[in-house]
């Protein structure tokens, strides 16, 4: 049994397989072809933080594969009344086939997985967001082909998305140019779990313009992630210069793409003319959450088909 808690849980070969399956599964969806390999299977989705894309993509995706879903939140389950995570895992995993969790500390999802009888998927923790990066990579490949050897500019917070980009760069052979304000740097020990990584899979730039120079893909995220709202005011000041604008896009490669995991704040981390402009692929990126996660659920439950 496999869990998907971090990007590093799969090999490059497994990602190649998943991207090819996602393309096939997307093709079936686009041509209204019924595909129900997960008939009678149930996905439990546990949300301890808000979500639009993750919920809709997993829920619609599971129904499209012939299965069904159970949706739980902290507020409407015993999780919010301090039932231990280990007990919740034992109970939920006896009645369902697959569990997706969005929560705060990554340790919580690890504890759940340890006590779960069924595969567990990370739908975002404070530290990682692997399903999003899988969708981003699939989107890049659809538009531009292989990402190996390419440069991804990360402009903004050294957060869950940044950590996961670093893991992906290490595994799939591309480079991340990271530019964060002082005090919000990526934590290499956290991103790589203290394990060795490929030298040069990421480079740090003080000036976000330098990070974007020559990039094949420019990407950013909110200044304040869920769970960090108390820091909002300090972050608004610290991140003022970390806004992806037309000038930053102009120093990237002429055919550079722009991505954002969404939700976005126009005028903060990205200007409207960039996110709504011709280089932006954010809507494909959002839609592809569903296609890659369908491939992921199929793989976790049925293996290679
Ligand atoms: N990108 C993403 O995970 O979006 P939601 O928070 O809406 O799920
Ligand atoms: N970094 C953001 C991503 C939201 C999808 C957060 O954790 O809130």
UniProtKB/TrEMBL annotation:
Alphabetized UniProt keyword annotations: Cytoplasm, Transferase
Compartments, as annotated in UniProt: Cytoplasm
Pathway(s) the chain acts in: Amino-acid biosynthesis; L-arginine biosynthesis; L-arginine from L-ornithine and carbamoyl phosphate: step 1/3
Domain Aspartate/ornithine carbamoyltransferase carbamoyl-P binding: 2-142
Top-level division of the source organism's lineage: Bacteria
Annotated EC: 2.1.3.3
InterPro entries (UniProt xref): Asp/Orn_carbamoyltranf_P-bd, Asp/Orn_carbamoylTrfase, Asp/Orn_carbamoylTrfase_sf, Asp_carbamoyltransf_Asp/Orn-bd, Orn/put_carbamltrans, OTCase_ArgI
Substrates-to-products reaction catalysed: carbamoyl phosphate + L-ornithine = L-citrulline + phosphate + H(+)
GO BP, one annotated term: citrulline biosynthetic process
Positions of the Aspartate/ornithine carbamoyltransferase Asp/Orn-binding domain: 149-300
Binding site for L-ornithine: 160, 221, 225-226
Binding site for carbamoyl phosphate: 51-54, 78, 102, 129-132, 261-262, 289
Catalytic EC class: transferase
Keyword Cytoplasm: yes
Family: Belongs to the aspartate/ornithine carbamoyltransferase superfamily. OTCase family.
Function text: Reversibly catalyzes the transfer of the carbamoyl group from carbamoyl phosphate (CP) to the N(epsilon) atom of ornithine (ORN) to produce L-citrulline.
The name this protein goes by in its record: Ornithine carbamoyltransferase
Lineage of the species this protein comes from: Bacteria, Pseudomonadati, Pseudomonadota, Betaproteobacteria, Burkholderiales
